Amino acid sequence: MQKNIKLPSNRNFGIVFFIVFLIIALWPILKQNEIRIWSLIISFIFFVLGLINSKLLAPLNKLWFKFGILLGNIIAPIVMGIVFFLVVTPTGLIMRFFRKDILKLKKNSSDSYWINKDNTNSSMRNQF
């Protein structure tokens, strides 16, 4: 884990949580229910503290950041494992089934594994 990662600003943290709690407050309107007043109050507290870039948000910002790092350390290996077992493993099994050796890893009886190139008139000026 890197130690020199910079925390986001308290202003951004306050505004993001203002939006999150505002959505929580106004979500019941979609189902013709009442607004959640507690969430609306918390939302405006975060908005005011975010606008003035208050130092009161620093501990919450640091805690939220550490929570994000913890989630990243847990979720990233799980997602990579799922990708590996759902994409890479089936591709390898299909390639084995059709006896494909794209990387030319199988042993052969030749003296060298060097691959001779057909076109010897290539120029380094137009590589692509």
Short note summarizing the structure:
This protein is mainly α and 128 residues long. Helix content is 56%, strand content 0%.
Could you explain how this protein is built, in words?
By secondary structure, the protein is mainly alpha-helical. Helices cover 56% and strands 0% of the residues. Helix 1 packs antiparallel against helix 2. The protein is elongated and about 80 Å long. The two termini are 38 Å apart.
Largest sheet: none
Distance between the amino and carboxyl termini: 38 Å
Radius of gyration: 28 Å
Helix content: 55-70%
Spell out the helices and strands N to C.
Answer: HHH
Structural category = mainly alpha
Mean pLDDT equals 87
Total helical elements: 3
Form type: elongated
Number of strands: 0
Low-confidence stretches: none
Strand percentage: under 5%
Give the helices and strands, then pairings.
Elements: H1 10-26, H2 37-51, H3 58-97
Characteristics of this structure?
single chain; about 130 residues; mainly alpha; about 55% helix; elongated
